TrEMBL record, chains A, B:
It comes from the Archaea. It comes from Methanoregula formicica (strain DSM 22288 / NBRC 105244 / SMSP). This is Triphosphoribosyl-dephospho-CoA synthetase. InterPro entries: CitG (IPR002736). Pfam families: CitG. GO terms for molecular function: ATP binding; triphosphoribosyl-dephospho-CoA synthase activity.
């Protein structure tokens, strides 16, 4: 069997596919569990439709904000709502820059036009960001503020970083994505490694997607419950069941896991055990 | 939500993804069931890796045999074995020709070079074709015969058509793929429609992939069992369980279902219910 090295685009798509199909993942869509509005097939369709924007990123030309907007626009073609917005925030700069260092350089080079494009992408999704601050995505005044203050896309992410672990990766240099990639390589090849890595990340950091929906207390509670699973005090199926029942979705840990898989695939980690 | 019309490439990839994720499908890999050697993730990786060859086909240039060979080569990059060889035999000409009529015209225009390329693709897979005839893929003499007789790719398919319902589609004008597309549109949108269509096709024709592995008697038996499910005499889960236990895989009906989904998506059928 001859196998050329995977391209960055293929690694990104594989990462999206492998993360969503890995199971069991407490509280999230996977092979064995859909939500009424959002199903596995929506995530997989999004993986297919993301191709052109990922190819733009791979060329390393064009503007990061525009490319993210294209990814969101092209993957909005189904009824499943926001599937990969957070994943694109991580994947697009990583594909563009080829490494974390390259991603950070591209991020530093963004301008207010990127911030404007990003907000337009944001408005296409139903994602709630900080509802209480002055950068409200639905307020046209926001775009004026962005231009007046000459905020680039890094400034935008900085603005949300306290409450959004995905945005925080842009500010801090992708440490959680890096950690996840290292965990995958330690945990071995294949699906079980993805599940263990997801759970380990969940046990280390409160998921800010949970915090936004349910408050930080529930996010911490979920983190400690993941630790209990890793310590053998509780089954993963039991935690999955509770998260589903209470609609607790570790969506940001999922996004970080996608970025981790992307990095690990480029460093020799095998998805195919 | 703005949605541009799906391209032929996207329809082909969606078709591959939707077919494999539909469940329950008696005896085949789906969301709830893997085989030890071949898992859902292999089929989904193949869907991603097929993109360049499908894009070649969409351009409508190049040679059908070469494009099929590229599709097989690019999707061989995993340990799951042959996942989509039959699906490519159907999808590549349909994407290339844009319609069944266009596909048949392209098929008629193939030459011995396409047949040679096809046999080289074939040799990359572990698929058994007719072991008893004189066109043995592992026999280098075969390629000499093909050139001497100036057989084109249609001639090759004609040679296998009696025992292979996928090859037969090339000879007879894709009637089963057409029937499947019509069934999908009758059965309504979404996953349940795919399952019902798969079952209906299975109940109408003995699956030649089953026949090659287990003999025509078992293929007919499976066809009649599918009819029992449609008639309410038996549950689909029960048939699925028996097929898994006996390693009965309706692989060619799956390939035809993929082609049917591809056609139906281009005719207004909605996958997203």
């Amino acid at each position: 069997m001859t196998c050329l090295r995977l391209s960055a685009v293929e690694r990104a798509q594989l990462a999206m596919m492998l993360e969503v199909t890995a199971f069991p993942k407490p509280g999230n869509v996977d092979r064995c569990h859909d939500y009424p509005e959002t199903r596995l097939e929506h995530f997989l369709a999004s993986t297919i439709f993301a191709r052109p924007a990922l190819e733009e990123a791979e060329l390393g030309k064009g503007r990061l904000g525009e490319i993210i907007k294209h990814a969101v626009r092209d993957t909005n073609c189904h009824a499943g709502g926001n599937t990969h917005f957070g994943a694109f925030i991580l994947l697009i700069p990583l594909v563009y820059g080829k490494t974390i260092e390259g991603a950070m350089a591209a991020i530093a080079n963004t301008e207010s036009s990127d911030a404007v494009a990003f907000y337009k992408a944001f408005a296409m999704t139903a994602v709630k960001m900080n509802a209480t601050d002055d950068l409200d995505v639905n307020d046209p005044h926001t775009l004026t503020l962005i231009r007046e203050r000459d905020m680039n896309l890094l400034d935008i992410m900085q603005h949300s970083a306290a409450n959004d672990m995905v945005a925080r990766e842009w500010v801090t240099g992708f440490p959680l994505s890096r950690r996840g990639a290292d965990l995958l390589k330690e945990n071995g090849p294949g699906r079980d490694s993805i599940v263990r890595t997801f759970l380990t990340l969940l046990a280390m950091e409160p998921d800010t997607f949970i915090a936004k929906k349910h408050g930080m207390e529930v996010a911490r509670e979920t983190m400690m419950a993941a630790r209990d699973v890793l310590d053998g005090k509780r089954s993963i199926e039991d935690l999955d069941e509770e998260c589903i029942r209470r609609n607790i979705n570790p969506g940001s840990i999922a996004d970080i896991t996608i970025a981790a898989i992307f990095l690990a695939l480029g460093e020799g980690w095998s998805w195919d055990s």
